[in-house]
Sequence to fold (182 residues):
Amino acid sequence: MIRRLFGRLAFLIALNLGAGPAWTAEPPGEYQIKAAYLLNFARYVEWPAVRLPTGAPLRLCVLGRDPFGGALIGLEGRQVNGHEMRLRQIEGVDQAGDCHLVFIADSEERRLGLLLRGLAGKGVLSVSDTDGFAEAGGSIGLVVEDGRVRFDINQAALQRDGLRASSQLLRLGRNVLGVRGF
Fold:
């Protein structure tokens, strides 16, 4: 039931990201749904106060070729747990220092290991839809399964980076890696 609720929530948020009346809106595309997931990940992951002080902007960065086609624009300025969301395009790990959530585009697949090593321990929630992302050491890997967007969570990567996912988010994950018994 919770999975269905989260899916509906993502769908409704994706619809709200579009401009124009709901009765003319097309069903959300894959990257509109993934943008809604990024917003929800930001809501259900906790950063240490030293990394994300009260009232500071929450920076969502896209590393590599942006696949969202404007779907993220609706997130700019949104409030997330008392933080205003800001968007930024970056080209390398050296620019990720002030990012809180980094989406690594599949254009960066060849240098994925290098990027993940560069982000390790910096308090950055790393998300990607590259195959095997969570297994490779990323925080959250988006996957399309049976025509639906799902996600895998690497709990060990979150802990390494000082981040904490809510129990609700952990229950909704398709797979939770890095936890005893998994």
